Structure formats: structure tokens, C-alpha cells
Amino acid sequence: MKQLFKKRLANHLTEMMKYLRLVFNDYFVLALVFLIGGLGYYYSNALKQLHSGIWWAPLLTIGVLLIGIQLGRFATLVQDPDYVFLLPQESEMVYYLRSAYRYSLVLACVTQVIIWIVLMPFVQVTLLATTSDLFYLLASILLLKAIWLNADFARKYRVKSRWVANRFLFRFLLPLAIFTISFYFEYWVGSLLTFLIILFSTVNSWRWGIRPLDWRTMIDDENNRMHTVYQFFNLFTDVPSLNGSVRRRRYLDWLLRRIRLIPENTYLYLYAHGILRDHEMGGLYFRLTVIGTLFLVFIKGEMLPIALCLIFLYLIGFQMIPFYFHFDDNAFVHIYPVTNDHQMKNFQRVLLIMLCAVATIFAIAVIAINYTNVVTIIGVIVGELLEVLAFIYLYVPRRIQRGQRSRNI
Amino acid sequence: MTLEVSNLVGGYSQVPVLNDVSFDVKNGELVGLIGLNGAGKSTTINHIIGLLTPFKGTIKINGTTLNEDVKAYKQQIAYIPEAPIVYKELTLKEHLEMTMLAYNLNQEDAWARAHRLLKKFRLDNKLDWFPDNFSKGMRQKVMIVCAFLTNAKLFIIDEPFLGLDPLAVNDLLNLISDRKKQGASILMSTHVLDTAQRYCDRFVLLHNGKVRTEGTLEQLRTLFPNAGDSLNDIYLSLAREGESE
């Protein structure tokens, strides 16, 4: 079983290296060096302005540590067919999973040490922590991460008492409590407490390690983890293993029910259901809308809000264009007796509705913030209207025609 | 090897799909789990192989539940899922090796048996191919070869006939009867009723998550004298009755 994990890990690392090479290409590394350099410079300058006794300093540190400790998940590397092929080995799976735990812990500890190194000068300056304090803090962080992973380990088993695998408790509440004790009381007390808890959870793990496995949770967890990893890589390159997941989104059904069920609307039906329920597309649309609205809420001015508004609108629309081809791999659409003519019209209609919704939200945000400025109000309305129409009826057809040509080659 | 399901209540989320399901598979017996789509056949099987946790009731293999002894429970089972599920990055040969490792089989004997099985299912020239690219029927054959490579004492087979060619169906049925003769117990879910009628010793008829009735064909005929002679007739009349309820 340990052998199996080693083999899986080797395969996994080769795959990750393949993607990492693509992510960290020369340009990106260069940009990253400048970014880190710039941030470091900014950080060291900021440190000079700081002094001890700032009330928000411990709160900020706790916040950063709490977010930081969530980094690094339990990588089991289990695969879908395992529950069939490894069925007779279930009692031995604990050795496999322990190897996986050790690997995940080492990886997570590296991340935690980096966070600790970055935070070290800040804690020293603002909280007057001594060197031994800092090492107590490091011990707490690493032990907390081990406890965090241990709870995720327990989750893979059908533990008798569910709190052993409670994510909220071990991922959030416990670290919050320990960090609060560390910064507001004594660092070594925090370390001591975490040490006692890790002893307890280790002893406890001998008890749940002989329970039956919860294969469904284990496989789902791992697939979700890999999905996040692939999603990250997908920002830089095309990941073939990434097949979109679908969410039901029942609360949007009232929108979909409005589509008239006539042959001309075949593609409208497909595109509307697809865009709303596709996790990737729906998520992107939602995130960009929220980010855009937030920007607009905080920005005042005459021309700047209009420009920003138009840029975000274009970005959202642009991201949606490839969805035109979303159903091309589906044999059904090639069999349906419908023409491509309707396909384009239907797609434009979906885009129109989606973009109008965003445009309205943006416009409301801009007008609410700049209600005294008539030029901005008129500018935003006219600008958005022109952009949406030009984008959908002039730009999109050309873009798609070009895409179609390159697809046919 | 005996399998005993008693008063099983279970399902995927909080909503129970199965309501008080009880039946058993005795030593050297082939029991057919019969039911319409959605009757709860696969759910029952998922509970038996330990993929789902029962809300209530117990499942015992040779008198042991999964919670009591994971090893004793799981080591005797071979399972063929309804939809073939294979490793993307392993070849057919590696799938067989994986099975040998997992069931701790003697390599030499296992390979001898593997070659016989592969030849039977006409996969012997595809050892270095990736089953992930095979057709549904051929992937199903891979699952069958892997399961019958083992010395399992209890076979759980979920709807094995879909996608298989008639020759393979026949070969699979022969394999099952061979294993039965050697003393293995088999639980097989299906809705190919005429095949089930010819090969199964007993039948458990599931309907809407409940055991509608169970017994040998003779027993079923006496229980439902007006329903007809074949399993098909009896099942259809029971299912229709269930509909109109």
C-alpha cells in the first residue's frame, strides 16, 4: 500500500511539474520577481512607519495566519476506480493514507514556514516579540496545520463521533483560539495547548483508523482538490482533465421557464440552461460582476467610473464568447433540424440578457455614487447602451466567424 | 459465504431510498435482485459493498458487519459495478496486476487464470491498451475479468448484461455457475428477466425501495397463481399492481 502511494505520488509530481513549467514560463517568472521585489520594498518601507502598541496589528496578524493556515490540503491522490479495485484492501488503506498525510504535511509546513518568515518582522516590530516567542509561534502554526490535516484525515473514515472531523472547529475556531492566546497572552501557552491537542488527536487516530472508510467522501474530496488545482493551472494553459461541473441552481428556474418552447428557440434553450448552470461560466460571470460593482462603489469621478464600467462590461462579455461552441461536441446539436442562423440569434439573445443585467447593476452603482454629476449619469447610460449593442451585434458575429474558421482547419 | 441484509433503511442523503429491506444469500447460491429502474437495486448493492452507510438495519457477511471488522468483511468480496470504471492511466495488464496486488493473489496462478479469462473474452491481444479508450462493452469485460481473477467468496454483480455481446453474456453466465459450484455466493441485480429466470436460484423483487416478494420461481408461482408462468409475467403483473396502488 505504501508502494502504491509512492507510485501515485511520482505520477502526480510529474504531472504537476509539467503544468508548473507552463505556469512559470520566463515572462511570468520575470513579472513575479518584479512583483515580489516591489512588494518587499513596500513592506520594508511600511515597517519603518510602524511601532509597537497599534491596536489592529495583532488582529491583522491573526487574520493573515487564519487565512494562511487554510493553505495546503490533504492530498490523498485516490482515484474514482479505487473503491472497486482496492475494495479488499480497505483495512490496509490506513497505511496508504498515512503516507499521504505525511506528504501533505511536509508540503503544508513549507507553505506555513514561508508565511511565518514573511510575518516575522511585522510581529517583531508591532508586538515586540522576542526570538523565542517567534519560534513558539512557529511551533503553534505547524502543529495547528497538523491538527487541521488530521481532522481532514478523520473525515475519510466513518468516525463514531462526528466532531473529530469537524472542519469548522479544526480549521477555524481552534486556530483562532490559539492565535488569540498567543498574541494577547503568552506564546508558549499557545504552543503547549496545540502540543496537547496533537497528542490527543494522534491517540484518537488509532481508534478511528480501524473504522470503515467513507469512500464517497474521500473520492469527492480528492476530486474537488484536484479540480481547484486544475482551475489554477487553467488560468495559464489549457487543462484537458478539467471537465466543467454543473450546478442545479433551482432558484434561477423562473428565468428559464420564460423561454417559449418553439423550434427557433432550440439554441436559446441550450445556451440559457448551459450558461446559468455551468459552474465555470456562471461563477466567472458572478465574480466579475461583484468585483466590478465593488470597484464602482468605491470610485468617484466624472469619466473614470464610465471607463471602468465599460471595461468590465467588455471583459464579462468577452469571457462568454467561447460558450458559443460549448455544445459543438454534443452529437445531438448536429442531428437537430435547426439552422446555424438561429444559433447565432439565440446566442446573441442570451448575451443581451446577461449583459443588460450587469449593465443595469453597474449603472445603478455608478449613479448612486455620483448622483450629483449629470454628465456621468448620462455618459454611463449612453455608453453602456452603445457598448452592449455594438459588442453583441457587430463584434460577436465577427469574432465567432473567425473562431469557426480556425476550428474548421 | 453468506450475506444477510436485515431491516436495511438507507439511501444517498437524508432521504431514505430503501425502506426496511431484508433478504439473504446463502452459501453457494445465486440470488437475482430484480426491480425497475430506480427500485433501489444499486442502492442496496452500494450499501452491501460499504459505499453507503445504513441509516438503520444491519448487513452481515458470514455473521460480521463492516463496523465490527473491516478486513473480514471486505476481503471476501468481488464487485462488478453497473457502469465500468477504470483507471485512466493504467493499461489492461496493469489493471490485472492491480487486482492481483489488492487481492494478494499468487502471481503465477493468477496470470494463468487471467490468460484463460482474457482469451475467453477476446481481450488477450489488448494487454497493453488503455481500457479507458475501450467501448462500454469491452470495459465491462475488463471489470468481469478483474473480478473473476480473484478467489472471492462473494460476488456482487450490478446489472452485468447491458452492453455485452451475446457470446460474452453466455461466457459470464458460465463463469458464474463455475464459481457457484466451487461454493461462492453471488448476488446479481438485473432486469434481463428471462436470463435471470434460467440461472438464478432465488429472486428478490424490489419495488419502490421495499422487498415486494422473494423466493424461488416455484414459490413465486404458488404465491401469485394468476400472474403467469414466467418470471417476466410475474414481475410485470407485480410492477403494474404497484403502479396502480
From TrEMBL, chain A:
Question: What name is this protein filed under?
Answer: Bacterial ABC transporter protein EcsB
**The UniProt record lists the keyword Metal-binding:** no
Q: Which InterPro entries match?
A: EcsB_ABC
- What are the TM regions of this chain, as residue ranges? 20-43, 55-79, 100-119, 125-148, 168-185, 191-210, 282-299, 305-325, 350-369, 375-396
Q: What is one cellular component GO term in this UniProt entry?
A: membrane
Question: Domain of life, per the record?
Answer: Bacteria
Annotated Pfam families:
EcsB
> Keywords in UniProt for this one?
Membrane, Transmembrane, Transmembrane helix
Q: What is the lineage of its organism?
A: Bacteria, Bacillati, Bacillota, Bacilli, Lactobacillales
TrEMBL record, chain B:
Q: Does the keyword field hold ATP-binding?
A: yes
In this chain the ABC transporter domain maps to: 3-233
User: What Gene Ontology terms describe what this protein does at the molecular function level?
Assistant: ATP binding; ATP hydrolysis activity
Q: Which residues form the signal peptide?
A: none
Pfam families reported for this sequence = ABC_tran
What InterPro entries does its record include?
AAA+_ATPase, ABC_transporter-like_ATP-bd, ABC_transporter-like_CS, ABC_Transporter_VariousFunc, P-loop_NTPase
Alphabetically sorted, this entry's keywords are:
ATP-binding, Nucleotide-binding, Transport
The protein's superkingdom reads Bacteria
Give the protein name, as stated in the record: ABC transporter, ATP-binding protein EcsA
Look up and give the organism this protein is from: Lentilactobacillus diolivorans DSM 14421
